Amino acid sequence: METYARFAILGMATGSLYALTALGIVLVYRASGVLNFAAGATGAFGAFVAYDLRDTHDVQRELAMAIGIAAGAVIGVLTQIIVMTLLSRAAPVAKLIATLGILTILVGAIELIWGEESRGQPRSLLVTTRREVLPDVFVPQDRLVLIGIALVAAVILRLLYSATPFGLATAAVAENRRVAAISGLSATRIELANFAIAGAISAAAAILLAPVLGLDINALTAVVIPALAAALIGRFASFGVTVLAALAIGVVQAEIPQLGFVKDHPEELAGLPTAVPVLLIVLVTAIRGRGRLQRGELIARLPLPGTGRIRPELVAAALVVGLLATSTANAAWAGALTITVAIAIVILSVVVVTGYAGQLSLAQFAIAGFGLWVAARLYDTQGLLFPFALLAGVALAVPLGLLVALPALRARGVDLAVATLGLAIAVQAIVLGNTELTGGYSGTTVKGADIFGWSIDGVAHPNRYASVGFVLLIVTGLVVANLRRGRSGRRLLAVRSNERAAASLGVGVYGAKLYAFGLSAAIAGLGGVVLGFKDQAVRFDQFNIFGSINVVQYAVIGGLGSIGGAAIGATLAVGAVGSRLLTDLVSDPDTVTWITILASLQVIVLIRHAPDGLGAQIADLGRRLPGLSWGRSATSAADVARREREFRALDVQNLTVRFGGVVALDGVSFTVRPGEVVGLIGPNGAGKTTLLDVVTGFTKPAAGSINLGGQPIDRWSPERRAREGIGRSFQAVELFEELTVEENLLVAADRQAPWRYLTDLVRPGRQVPSDAMAGIVSLFELEAVLQQRPAELSQGQARLVGIARAMCAEPTLLFLDEPAAGLDSHEREELGQAVRSLAAANGIGVVLVEHDVPLVMATCDRIVALDFGRVIATGTPDEIRAHPDVVASYLGEEAHA
């Protein structure tokens, strides 16, 4: 027990320093909404400054520590200038990626100034005399001081940000910068102050932590992961909860090695303490996350994806040039080409999961390492032939990708980035960094690789190996391009753009995310195998946190949604053709580090000036060249025919919805029969849109039932309801911004066949508009805008496209939420006629939610009036027009007269 108690106190000391870093992260997030991944690197830089001054230049320890903390504050200020000023218009995810760039720049700067090697554990700045804190339990005094520092810091910050004008001003700026500016507050100055304080705290934490973990770049930078876990538990808001969570993480990490089963297997379970904060991150995101976005909650915008169009002549030319280059290069350049090809394949996995599906994954390089580990171990220990080992590595990377996808089912944006980066570190710590699993000190050897007798050994025949890798890159690029052009690609982009709207059209949101992660994992695994089998001795240490971050940065440079951009970004990787060229031109051992720093700077510049990446810029030039595209053959007639639907009545009984103490709907009942147009009216806040959300499956009722054709559908998901014929438009339109108008309509017309996720990879074909879609395009006169994106449309046009998209799904019940908003009088009249003809000619039941009373009265067969979540009247237009409760609550007293 004495041992456990001592390690608990030691763990609390380490956790207290996690807490200080976490407090800096919370400060920045509270002030700006930016999740600063560079907090650990900021602290590391301050620690190197402080100990270099004290130990090398004999500066007094207090002054050295003060200068180190000041260095952290300066970096914090520079971070604010870059992220919040230069990138003020960028999306939160883009700002997060910028902080990853800052992290890489700081790590590179430390390597250039102080070298890459760890400088050991410096002498503590605090008194280290051992104290007896419990009977027979002795711990160094500095550890007790560290715990006290963290607790005091939490109290001070709590008081500062809750009871001072500065704290209140920070809260005001974080909530609304414009309103704060109108009130006379300088948002920039307040953010600068908070970033400076956060940088100083991070530096102080690293300075105090270095005597515990050592003055090591990797160790001090990786502190950001447990700090992020603690901040996440504190909801990036509570100082007290964040500190307590960090202390608990430190205790658990310290106690795990003392457990009996861990002591029995020290080598195999060496990475388990590292996985503790990762498990906490995944658990917290799963508990707190939401499977579906709430009304009005949108996903942060990402760079626009490419079209996926393939020019055969360009592909053929690239293949010829690539094979000539790989077959004639000397051994050194063949190796550089192989690295470029392998990294490009991994970047293509980022294009799929982030560029297409919108899921920011920082685990792709770790998944690549896992795929390599599977293939290499099977090749080395089981004698599996290279082609089969490669296929095994690709196939077994998929389950890991699906595991990484689990947080994506309930987390998005920055939360998902934290979870996936944590999982990447867990894979590296538990598997790739575990010598027991990677072959011990002798490692894993893969010499003599061949393809059914034809040797492609990366050392003996580097040109052959590079050529094989290049062919695999071309094939992978074609697969990703096919995906983009096919139905599956449109589904992924629909989910990326707007999950609610995608689900309302029957697109399986969860299935799309799992598919994207699974496919991207397979591609990443392929890239990992190509990268690792280049040498005879496989190196797994390269698949670390920095490798995962760098791959995302390379993807940003080339273009997150650009297939050709993958090759452009890959040239900047360590050992790739870009660094090889500079190494040959400049004989400086620090060239690789400089390339990494310059690549990170380029990421920041591109986020500001060309967020779609260099690949998109080149593609714009390429579109001017004549050429044809593959995969645009017509589909069969069966794909074009109208859907066979059973028209069924909808019966809603006693629906009640509560949001906390607010009753949004109170015992609402109504019916909709086939071919009937039912109007739903009421003042703002009456519960109309909430009722639509309940019936279409986006909001769960507290009580009541919904029946379709006599069948209960209360437990059906929004996707299933959509596939069974319940369609809707949205009050805020909610078109898929990354898709053209035609593609928006094609997503709705898609039958959502699951087998398309496989066939699209080989032959996507061309989805011919259905008969219904062609008629709807003609009805709303949309021919001229089919190739435009929603951002290019007027408000009225966008509204019509939203209604047309809902109709293209060929529903049997259609809910229209304020469809006439933004339309002129002529368009409103045409809309009313279209709704009437839709119901009369096709037998579709329509529910029209609208504030335009004349339109409702002229269009609807029956009207349901709501007020404060209750039905106050139901009847024909004439009956509703004369109903006294409706007149009093909605139409106005004068209407009665």
Automatic annotation (TrEMBL):
Top-level division of the source organism's lineage: Bacteria
Matches recorded under Pfam families: ABC_tran, BCA_ABC_TP_C, BPD_transp_2
Protein topology in the membrane: Multi-pass membrane protein
Keyword check for tRNA processing: no
Coiled coil regions, renumbered to chain: none
InterPro entries: AAA+_ATPase (IPR003593), ABC_AA/LPS_Transport (IPR051120), ABC_transp_permease (IPR001851), ABC_transporter-like_ATP-bd (IPR003439), ABC_transporter-like_CS (IPR017871), BCA_ABC_TP_C (IPR032823), LivM-like (IPR043428), P-loop_NTPase (IPR027417)
Keywords of this entry: ATP-binding, Cell membrane, Membrane, Nucleotide-binding, Transmembrane, Transmembrane helix, Transport
Bilayer-crossing regions: 7-28, 34-51, 63-87, 93-114, 144-161, 195-215, 227-249, 269-287, 308-325, 331-353, 360-379, 385-406, 413-432, 465-483, 514-533, 553-577
Main location as per UniProt: membrane
Compartments, as annotated in UniProt: Cell membrane
Domain ABC transporter per the UniProt entry, residue ranges: 650-893
The keyword ATP-binding appears for this protein: yes
Protein name (database record): Branched-chain amino acid ABC transporter permease/ATP-binding protein
Source species: Sporichthya brevicatena
